[in-house]
Design brief:
The protein is an alpha/beta fold. It has a single domain, classed as Alpha/Beta hydrolase fold, catalytic domain (Rossmann fold, 3-Layer(aba) Sandwich), CATH 3.40.50. It is 34% helix and 16% strand. A 6-stranded parallel sheet has the order 2-1-3-4-5-6, with helices on both faces. Helix 1 (20-28) links the parallel strand 1 (5-9) and strand 2 (32-36).
C-alpha cells in the first residue's frame, strides 16, 4: 500500500526549513511528507490558496490519503483552499497555533509603519473583525485537531492578547467551529512545530483522530 501523504504548511514569514524537524519525525512515523515552501509575505490568503497550495497537493502520490499539518497562517490558507475546493482523499488536519478567529496583534499593529512590509498582504487579513479572512471562512467540515500554546518569548506582544496566549495568538482564537479536538501545551507560537511533545500529539492525531489528553501538560 502507498504511504499516506502529509503536506506541511509553514507560517507567516517562515520557510519550509521551520518544518524540517516535523518532516523528519513524520517520515520516521511512516508518512510520505511534502514540506512545502510558499511566499507567505508576497500575496494575500486567497492567492496563496489558489496559486500555490495545488502545487503541494500535486506532489502527493495518486490515490493516497492526503493529510495536512499547518503552522499559524498555513492553517488559514488551508481553510480557504478547502472552502473553495473538494479534496476527495482528504485525511486529517492538525493546526498549530492557527489564528482561526484572527489575532488582536494585527488589529493593533496593522497601521504601524513597516507592519505590512514585514507580514505582507496575508498578514493584513488576519485581524479579529468580522470581515477578516479567518472569520469569513465558516466552520470546518473535516477532521481537525488544534494545538494551542500558552508560553511566550515576546511579553510585549502577549500584552496585546487575551490570556492565555502563545505570544501571537490567544488560545481562544485558535478554536474554530466544527473542530474535532483541541489541546493546550506550554509552548510558544514560534517553536510549536519544533517541540517534541507537540510532534508526538501531531502523530497521535494523524493516526487516531484524537489527541492523548491524559499525557498532556495542561
Amino acid at each position: 500500500m502507498s504511504k499516506e501523504c502529509v503536506v506541511l504548511l509553514h507560517g507567516m514569514a517562515r520557510s519550509d526549513n521551520s518544518m524540517n524537524k516535523m518532516e523528519k519525525k513524520l517520515n520516521e512515523a511512516g508518512y510520505f511528507v511534502i514540506n512545502f515552501d510558499y511566499p507567505s509575505t508576497q500575496h494575500n490568503i486567497e492567492s496563496i490558496a489558489k496559486d500555490y497550495l495545488p502545487n503541494a497537493i500535486a506532489q502527493c502520490k495518486p490515490n493516497t490519503i492526503i493529510n495536512f499539518v499547518t503552522h499559524s497562517l498555513g492553517g488559514i490558507v488551508l481553510r480557504k483552499y478547502l472552502k473553495d475546493n473538494k479534496l476527495e482523499l482528504l485525511g486529517r488536519v492538525v493546526m498549530l497555533g492557527p489564528p482561526n478567529k484572527g489575532s488582536e496583534i494585527v488589529d493593533k499593529l496593522k497601521n504601524v509603519p513597516g507592519f505590512k512590509l514585514i507580514n505582507g498582504p496575508a498578514g493584513m487579513e488576519l485581524g479579529t473583525d468580522k470581515a477578516s479572512v479567518p472569520n469569513l471562512l465558516g466552520a470546518v467540515t473535516y477532521p481537525v485537531g488544534i494545538i494551542a500554546g500558552t508560553s511566550t518569548i515576546n511579553p510585549i506582544l502577549s500584552q496585546m492578547l487575551p490570556n492565555p496566549d502563545d505570544g501571537k495568538v490567544s488560545v481562544e482564537n485558535t478554536k474554530v467551529e466544527g473542530m474535532t479536538d483541541h489541546i493546550i501545551l506550554p509552548v510558544s507560537h514560534t517553536f510549536l512545530m519544533r517541540n517534541d511533545e507537540v510532534i508526538k500529539h501531531v502523530i497521535k492525531f494523524l493516526k487516531t483522530g484524537k489527541f492523548q489528553h491524559s499525557n498532556a501538560s495542561l
